[in-house]
Amino acid sequence: MNYLGAMIPYIDLVLHFDQYLPQIIQAYGLLTYVLIAVIIFLESALVIFPFLPGDSLLFISGALSASGLLNLELLIVILIIAAIVGGLVNFWIGRYLGRKILDKKVGFIRQEYIDKTHMFFEKYGGFTIVIARFIPFVRSLAPFFAGIGQMNFYHFFVYNLIGAVLWIMSFILMGYIFGNLPMVHDNFGLVVLLIVGLSLIGVLSLILNMFRSCKITAIFGRGK
């Protein structure tokens, strides 16, 4: 019980790292870049860390860059590298586990499921990997399933790079430009939720259109 009680402040720090960021900068200086990069890397690299504060951390980091507490160019470069490497690690974990699962012949996971996953990522993998960056939880899962589905590594690498650059730059620059406006600063949590919500709406509309086109193709295919 005492051990758990001692861990709670550290768990709270990790889950709400974005909220403690100004104090962390004051206490740790340049080491802050490493700490932010580790959070972005873990959220991108491991499916067990989808709850880490990715979007809000990027936004507030951009806002703090505008205040002069962080260097904007250095921040962008370090976090893009962290996001790219994290996605690659996640992909290779998925590819390794996919092979292990098939080798051990786990009953409820059949070759046909892996084949269908492979077909999906061969057809929509690029779109999925880029868009997933903007969806909390999904960005931790998409590279993993791309690996399981044996998506072409070159294609994954390219779209993982594009997705990482777009995600990091868009949220940091939004924070840099808008983060210190009084209305945004006073309603920071709502602003981040609004940004994520708008991203989700745009992504869901694209996904619906994608599945509609699949249905139409399937219907005409059967007609032939």
Question: How would you describe this structure to a colleague?
Answer:
This protein has helices at 2-15, 17-28, 31-45, 54-66, 72-104, 111-132, 138-148, 153-178, 182-186, 188-223. It is 83% helix and 0% strand. With 224 residues, it is mainly alpha-helical. α2 packs across α4, α3 (31-45) runs parallel beside α5 and α6 (111-132) runs parallel beside α8 (153-178). It has one domain (2-223). The protein is elongated and about 55 Å long. The longest helix is centred in the C-terminal third of the chain and has 36 residues, at 188-223. It has ten helices and no strands.
Task: Summarize the structure in short.
The chain has 224 residues and is mostly helical.
Largest sheet: none
- Counting DSSP E segments of at least 2 residues, the number of strands comes to 0
- Sequence of secondary-structure elements: HHHHHHHHHH
What fraction, in percent, of the residue positions are helical? over 70%
The N- and C-terminal alpha carbons lie at a distance of 67 Å
Strand proportion, as a percent range, falls in: under 5%
How many individual helices?
Answer: 10
Low-pLDDT parts are 3-7, 213-224
Using the CA coordinates, give the radius of gyration.
20 Å
Number of domains: 1
| Class inferred from helices and paired strands | mainly alpha
Overall mean confidence score, pLDDT: 78
Report the principal-axis shape.
Answer: elongated
